[in-house]
Amino acid sequence: MKIIDRYIATVVTTATLTALLVVVGLDAFFSVIGQIDSVGKGDYTLLKMLMTVVLTIPASMYALFPVAALLGSLGGMGMLASNSELIALRASGLSIWRIVLSVMQAGVLMLFIAVLVGEFVAPGAEQYAQQIRSSATDARVSFMGNRGLWVRDDRLFINAKKVVSENTLADITVYEFDDNAKLKIATSAVSANYRKGQWVLHNVQQSRFGTDSVQVDHVEELPRDSLLTPELLGIVVLEPEDMSAREIKQFMSYLQDNGLNTQQYQYALLSRFITPVSALVMLFISVPFVFGSLRTASAGHRIFIGILVGFGFYIVSQVAGQMGRVYDLDPVLATFTPSVIFLLIGIRAVRRL
To answer: I need a surface site. Which of 65, 223, 295, 332 has the fewest CB within 10 A?
Structure first.
């Protein structure tokens, strides 16, 4: 039995890695096309653009792994079906559920590696890519990293410890210098929101430095016209989906402590767990196709069906997530419902074989 498990695992793993190489390559190709217009802006050269694309590949590998698992399983198991090897396995007394178990065992091994890449490699690479892109395309961005965003705007130096979104900053400090490069005003705020063409700072402490004195004022809100633009933040903001689960949890704790909305990060955190589940579901539902009407189909036909199923799962997942956000549904329910539905469909299909 172990020999059969290893053989099926080898076939499925090889086909999945091939499919992953293809889909990630296509994703990288379209990323290059999408960013080619930005080449030449500031110091954003072709080499830097290619570097950012390469650095986003680990995140693409993790996000596209469920689709690659479906295509790989359809291709690998389909090849066994075409060679009548699955018929031989069934004739030897091996049940369909036992073959499903062998496929799932191969999936768990690949999934373990994919999770390691998604949690420990992809977030750091994505952040570095963002830093290269933002500092090259806009000279005002001085630094972006673990200590937040630093931006220079004439005589203002702006530090935002947390860039929540294009319109929201948290733990922000603005340093204003005079013509002699001496610190004149230091303004710190718990959060800032962009409203009607200007930033509104909340829970503000402002220190004005005189020759021999410091005047400290506290205000609830302080409008500021000359700060970062949402367009600039759109370049530097790191999407929650590109963070690791640990980073998302830390970010959520910070937002909760400061009374800020965490819905977007709740969905992002759940998506870190739903990706592995989705990959296993995709592997599972591929088996009925191979044993059913597709057992004598061509490889191209199987790939086409796999693309349709994968695209359908993606659409259902996106619709469920958006409905959850709009109607304020439970994030767990909205996130896991598509996987449960497809899993039940797969179980029903296997039982009918």
So the answer is: 223
Neighbours of 234 (CB within 10 A): 12
pLDDT at residue 118, as a whole number: 92
Give the range among 12-21, 116-125, 132-141, 166-175 with minimum mean pLDDT: 132-141
Q: Where is the domain boundary, 182, 205, 225?
A: 225
d(CA 135, CA 131): 6
Give the residue numbers spanning the domain of 172: 155-225
171 & 203 share domain = yes
Q: What is the largest CA-CA distance in the chain?
A: 93
- Residue of 353, 187, 215, 206 lying closest to 285 (CA atoms): 353
Which 8-state DSSP code applies to residue 238? Answer: P
Indicate the DSSP class of residue 182. Answer: -
Give me the torsion for CA of 334, 337, 342, 343, rounded to 10°.
140
Residues 182 and 45 in one domain: no
Number of helical (H) and strand (E) elements in the chain, helices listed first: 11, 7
- Report yes or no on whether pTM surpasses 0.70: yes
37-92: per-residue pLDDT in tens? 888 887 889 999 999 999 999 999 999 999 899 889 888 888 887 888 888 888 88
* Closest of 284, 326, 318 to residue 63, by C-alpha: 318
230: phi then psi, degrees, rounded to nearest 5: -60, -30
Mapped onto helix, strand or coil, the DSSP state of residue 29 is helix
Within a domain: residue 272?
yes
**Total number of domains in the chain:** 2
Q: Are 147 and 134 a contacting pair, CB within 8 Å?
A: no
The DSSP-derived string for 104-164 is HHHHHHHHHHHHHIIIIIHHHHHHHHHHHHHHHH-TTEEEEETTEEEEEETTEEEEEEEEE
Rounded to the nearest 5°, which phi and psi values hold at 198? -150, 160
Q: Are residues 7 and 127 in the same domain?
A: yes
